Amino acid sequence: MLCHYPCRLEAGYALIAPANQAESCVVTSNENLFILLPPSEGKAPSGATSTKFKETDGKFGKSLAKQRSEIISALRIENGGSQKLLGVSGTHLLRAQQANLALRGAKTLPARDRYTGVVWDHLDLASLTSAQQKFADANIIVVSGLLGLVCAGDAVPDYRLKIGVSLAPMGKLSTWWRETISLTLNKYCAGAVVIDLLPQEHSAAFVPNEKLLNEYFRIDLATKSGTAGGHDAKAAKGRLARHLVTNHSNPVAALKTFKDPKFKVRVLKKF
What we know:
Layout lengths: L1 E3 L14 H5 L9 E5 L10 E5 L8 H17 L5 H4 L3 H12 L5 E4 H4 L3 H6 L6 H10 E5 L3 E4 L3 E3 L8 E2 L3 E2 H16 L4 E4 L3 H4 L11 E9 L10 H13 L4 H7 L5 E8 L1
Parallel strand pairs: 1-12, 2-5, 2-10, 10-11
Antiparallel strand pairs: 3-4, 4-7, 5-6, 8-9, 11-12
């Protein structure tokens, strides 16, 4: 079920288009589609010794290497990060600090295997066909506090750094990243359909460009009564992302045909 919810977002974002405008959207089978997802807070440890992390890794590495290097250097000054910065304690804090201090040359895993949270578990890319996995690897893009942007198939080290935190000297990372991520992502996705499944703290780092993108949908999942889904909607978000991957030839239709026993698709912003 696809519903339309008029909602004012952060400064610089327009109001959602009326429902009758959304119904008129047509996406042909030859359109490109990109799906924006957050990383998971929890991550699989270790990785492959044959692929050691460099700031230039992945689809966006050359564009974002400078910013990645600045953040890695800032984390080293912070000894990997404090309990307040990283949001964990005890053995979880120790592991996070050790990972953050050893980023350069660290073992890597593809992002789809590194991220292990509820969204990614229910996306379940490993059970897709090889063609669907290939599409997901290239067309799912993660907005990350450490790396800026990574595709699902890109090599990613173990780390912990939320995009909503403040790290000296950058300040709040979503704000610090916003211009770079927006310029890079709008250019990369030019002429394509972008479906944004990011939570607010990640979406704050990206301002979509109506002149460059073919179509853009910022999506939330709400209960059947219309209230925000919150944490309980994460599993449904993973299933929605999977539904979009398996029906990527017509993503607008896929938004309308997605079914979940508890939640419905809600369009927060579109053009």
